């Protein structure tokens, strides 16, 4: 009889990236690396590779609800990770799902752009996420360009964006890496007024799926019971290592190496 203790289950609601660099595959690998089990619900299908995204299609709400319902009926969900939703109607669909999962840690990664710059949803999707999902999320993890869209501040600093967004969410992690500074600054803001900055060395190259990797690792750490500050610190450290060890399977961006090469040995 198998008496091994079950791993915490993290429900992932995000898009599928056929290149495997971002989206649900990134979620699955990063969550596995934290010692958790990923339960992926597909919200959208994309046409993309390591260079850019060229198209996407949001799934019917009934299909998404059915996927999530099958998991929720069968498993005890310990955390939720939200990624690409792609439309305002899908935001509403996800709100319906979350109403059944109250009291769980929820990480909202407001995916609006692919690593190559292509759009994965109109700005109005970001605004819907801000108004309807950030208030129920434990933490949101936008990069600075995404934070500027959400805050409607095209040239806003991280502090200015945080001031605009914190009324909507408990915690906000605005990630760096989009400038030219030699050190990357990732800033954690909390509604109680506390802040923390985590810095790391900038790595050469451009990466596909780094945001998905971070948000999923963070969801895994929270599902394991870590407090927000510790979970953020551990997820950032893990993500940096995946970028340090990244490889380049295509002609474009590097892919984070989320699982060790001997993971299955």
Automatic annotation (TrEMBL):
<dbReference type="InterPro" id="IPR013749">
    <property type="entry name" value="PM/HMP-P_kinase-1"/>
</dbReference>
<keyword id="KW-0808">Transferase</keyword>
<dbReference type="Pfam" id="PF08543">
    <property type="entry name" value="Phos_pyr_kin"/>
</dbReference>
<dbReference type="GO" id="GO:0009228">
    <property type="term" value="P:thiamine biosynthetic process"/>
</dbReference>
<feature type="domain" description="Pyridoxamine kinase/Phosphomethylpyrimidine kinase">
    <location>
        <begin position="17"/>
        <end position="253"/>
    </location>
</feature>
<dbReference type="GO" id="GO:0008902">
    <property type="term" value="F:hydroxymethylpyrimidine kinase activity"/>
</dbReference>
<dbReference type="GO" id="GO:0005829">
    <property type="term" value="C:cytosol"/>
</dbReference>
<dbReference type="GO" id="GO:0008972">
    <property type="term" value="F:phosphomethylpyrimidine kinase activity"/>
</dbReference>
<keyword id="KW-0418">Kinase</keyword>
<protein>
    <recommendedName>
        <fullName>hydroxymethylpyrimidine kinase</fullName>
        <ecNumber>2.7.1.49</ecNumber>
    </recommendedName>
</protein>
<dbReference type="InterPro" id="IPR004399">
    <property type="entry name" value="HMP/HMP-P_kinase_dom"/>
</dbReference>
<comment type="pathway">
    <text>Cofactor biosynthesis; thiamine diphosphate biosynthesis.</text>
</comment>
<dbReference type="GO" id="GO:0009229">
    <property type="term" value="P:thiamine diphosphate biosynthetic process"/>
</dbReference>
<dbReference type="InterPro" id="IPR029056">
    <property type="entry name" value="Ribokinase-like"/>
</dbReference>
